[in-house]
């Protein structure tokens, strides 16, 4: 029995089967491509860059854990400062001046969530028009959060990518991530276009036992495109404004036709249920494909039943552009094709374009039924609960009877219970987001955005922008508002990503605003990454003053963290209990002021303690049950989830939940005499770190 776990075990083997999540499959992909290239005698390197964000928030963290394995496979991982600049770097990988002589090409992987795809638009359009190196290739890993589970708005990137001329593949499971990923690189090299992969939440988070043998994918590269020999050159390192018109023509002309030739030759779209006398065809890709299959199963229709009842099913791999040959033969003899896809009609309109001129064309339904009534929801996520009723209706229209599902399917958009997200125990945002009475507050992106869920007037945000827009909304509101000042929250991760520009905009427009720059040392919401481009807080203060900020003031949980002489002149450093006074002072200063609130993320501290990177304190906070009156005021003051109401033999009391307490001691700063601290035995603390016995002490089951 293997007793040690090494993350590399998922990535080092190159044959057999491995359990992988969608994210882990994305980590494997560049390694597999390098293995395949090496086997073909091609010397390639890989450059990965992008910006973290769900649903591919953990991608960068997993890559960083690989260490030497990345080096062994020629992978260079450089976290981007933001998505747009990262996309520009990817463009660079395909147009390398004087490429190293030991290299045939460099593969570029860009990753980011859908808002990152949006903000990287100009760079992606430039890069895609310029094109890819024939031995390099670019893959855009676009993280889509259709239900807006951890985003400010729901998203689907395919339309955005298609507008830039970037073909899009849509994996429907983890195996697809591996296999279509390899095709994405081959397609990009062959066609000269960047290729997108739509990584939706349910794919990124899924786990699957995957086949990893390299020869699973053996791309066919047609010699001809539209009967003309196909030959590729490396793209120009300089794309002049005049030359870009030609590049546009080739991106949407010959290079796009090459994509279609590749898709046709490799038959990536599959008819998974065939029926010679079919009347109804169902087409889906990605996560909606899985929702459709599960719905059919619940309706009692397996593949044999579907074949017998005259239903064909197609699993699309490429959702942009759609390969016309496959869909045209799929449509033969059908009365209707039902397209099951998320958001607005995208595949559906392409099918109409392709099939409109064929002699006996089927009706195409999806967002609307044949009478023009709404059928498949065009918002949110396509869960089984939302797909099943639509499927049932269209099956009934073809006289196909279905079972009533044995269990009730509950729509996720109407859950029986909701849990409002809240700050971790000891989170600095618990206190830093409080403002003086009567303040107008702007929310920002990051964990502190949870202020939009609170009823507490002292912290509740009146607005919330996209990442990097923090405070710019006020520029358009201020001239027309009775309010004269805004407190604008801004995380340090966001500051380095793009938020510093919003401060510049506020200065240039003459806004009256106080930014609350919440320095917790990490990009907390996406897993605790170091912000790319980060600087020590005193240097941030210098940057801000150099930009023209009128006053900078610091409130800190530890005023001795930086040497006193590290701070620029005129910057006061106060203890965090003076937050209210600091805010009163800054809002009385005309112009743009910045309050830097410095206190580390409590969860990051907890992780560090678990991993032995920080000592575990020996001081614990407890509430004396004979003194406590159970008023709950400490919970209101500290906003901490670890303060639990309990019933004791003395009546209702408050108790510190020691398991979740993050030991930041902020609850001690209230006036309550019931709070006491105790010192615990350091040896017991050390022992408590390892709650799991050593592996050799675990006995085999008898
Ligand atoms: C353009 C864009 N890229 C990425 C994200 C994903 N995202 C959401 S919150 C967040 C972290 C922000 O970090 P920070 O500003 O440090 O705030 P914290 O979470 O640490 O409070 C990120 C990267 C996003 N929403 N928009
Ligand atoms: S010390 Fe107090 S405020 Fe801090 S996490 Fe523990 S209970 Fe919460
Ligand atoms: S992860 Fe860190 S910043 Fe986010 S809520 Fe928890 S403690 Fe606060």
UniProtKB/TrEMBL annotation:
UniProt key word Oxidoreductase: yes
Molecular function terms, GO-annotated: oxidoreductase activity
InterPro entries, sorted: 2-oxoacid:Fd_oxidoreductase (IPR051457), Pyrv_Fd/Flavodoxin_OxRdtase_N (IPR002880), THDP-binding (IPR029061), Transketo_C/PFOR_II (IPR009014)
Keyword Oxidoreductase: yes
Keyword terms, alphabetized: Oxidoreductase, Pyruvate
Name of the protein in question: Indolepyruvate ferredoxin oxidoreductase, alpha and beta subunits
């Amino acid at each position: 029995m293997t007793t040690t776990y090494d993350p590399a075990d998922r990535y080092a083997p190159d044959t057999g089967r491995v359990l992988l999540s969608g994210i882990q499959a994305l980590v494997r992909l560049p390694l597999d491509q390098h293995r395949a290239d090496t086997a073909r005698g091609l010397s390639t390197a890989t450059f990965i860059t992008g910006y973290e964000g769900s649903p591919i928030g953990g991608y960068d963290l997993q890559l960083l854990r690989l260490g030497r394995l990345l080096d062994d496979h020629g992978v260079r991982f450089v976290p981007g400062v933001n998505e747009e600049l990262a996309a520009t770097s990817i463009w660079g990988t395909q147009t390398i001046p004087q490429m190293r002589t030991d290299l045939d090409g460099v593969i570029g992987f860009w990753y980011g969530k859908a808002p990152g795809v949006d903000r990287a638009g100009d760079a992606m359009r430039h890069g895609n028009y310029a094109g890819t190196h024939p031995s390099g290739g670019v893959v855009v890993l676009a993280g889509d959060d259709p239900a807006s589970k951890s985003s400010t708005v729901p998203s689907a990137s395919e339309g955005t990518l298609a507008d830039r001329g970037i073909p899009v593949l849509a994996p429907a499971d983890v195996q697809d991530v591996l296999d279509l990923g390899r095709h994405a690189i081959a397609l990009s090299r062959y066609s000269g276009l960047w290729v997108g992969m739509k990584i939706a939440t349910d794919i990124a988070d899924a786990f699957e036992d995957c086949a990893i043998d390299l020869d699973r994918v053996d791309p066919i590269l047609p010699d001809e495109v539209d009967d003309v020999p196909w030959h590729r050159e490396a793209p120009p390192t300089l794309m002049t404004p005049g030359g870009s018109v030609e590049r546009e023509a080739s991106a949407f002309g010959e290079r796009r036709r090459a994509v279609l030739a590749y898709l046709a030759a490799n038959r990536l779209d599959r008819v998974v249920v065939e029926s010679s006398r079919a009347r109804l065809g169902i087409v889906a890709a990605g996560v909606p494909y899985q929702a459709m299959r599960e719905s059919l199963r619940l309706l009692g229709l397996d593949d044999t039943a579907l074949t017998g009842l005259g239903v064909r099913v197609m699993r699309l791999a490429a959702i942009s552009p759609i390969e016309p040959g496959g869909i045209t033969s799929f449509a033969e003899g059908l009365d209707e094709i039902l397209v099951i896809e998320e958001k607005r009609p995208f595949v559906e309109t392409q099918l109409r374009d392709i099939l409109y001129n064929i002699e006996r064309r089927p009706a195409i339904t999806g967002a609307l039924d044949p009478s023009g009534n709404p059928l498949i929801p065009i918002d949110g996520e396509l869960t089984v609960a939302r797909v099943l009723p639509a499927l049932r209706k269209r099956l009934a229209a073809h006289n196909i009877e279905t079972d009533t599902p044995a269990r009730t399917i509950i729509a996720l958009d109407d859950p029986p219970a909701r849990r409002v997200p809240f700050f971790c125990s000891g989170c600095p945002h618990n206190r830093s987001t409080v403002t003086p009475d009567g303040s107008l507050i702007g929310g920002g992106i990051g964990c502190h955005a949870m202020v939009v869920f609170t009823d507490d007037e002292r912290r509740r945000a009146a607005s919330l922008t996209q990442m990097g827009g923090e405070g710019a909304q006020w520029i358009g509101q201020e001239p027309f508002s009775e309010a004269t000042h805004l407190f604008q929250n801004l995380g340090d991760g966001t500051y380095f990503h793009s938020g510093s520009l919003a401060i510049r905009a506020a200065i240039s427009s003459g806004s009256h605003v106080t930014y609350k720059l919440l320095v917790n040392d990490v990009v907390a919401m996406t897993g605790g990454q170091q912000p790319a481009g980060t600087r020590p807080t005193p240097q941030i203060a210098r940057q801000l003053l150099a930009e023209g900020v009128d006053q900078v003031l610091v409130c800190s949980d530890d005023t001795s963290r930086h040497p006193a002489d590290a701070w620029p002149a005129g910057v006061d450093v106060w203890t965090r209990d003076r937050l209210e006074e600091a805010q009163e002072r800054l809002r009385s200063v005309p112009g743009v002021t910045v309050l830097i609130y410095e206190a580390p993320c409590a969860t990051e501290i907890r992780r560090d303690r678990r991993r032995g990177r920080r000592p575990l304190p020996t001081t614990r906070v407890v509430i004396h049950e004979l003194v406590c009156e159970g008023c709950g005021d400490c919970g209101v003051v500290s906003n901490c989830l670890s303060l639990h109401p309990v019933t004791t033999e003395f009546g209702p009391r408050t108790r510190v939940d020691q398991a979740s307490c993050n030991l930041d001691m902020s609850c001690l700063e209230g006036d309550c005499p019931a709070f006491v601290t105790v010192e615990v035995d350091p040896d017991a603390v050390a022992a408590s770190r390892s709650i799991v016995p050593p592996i050799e002490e675990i006995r085999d089951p008898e």
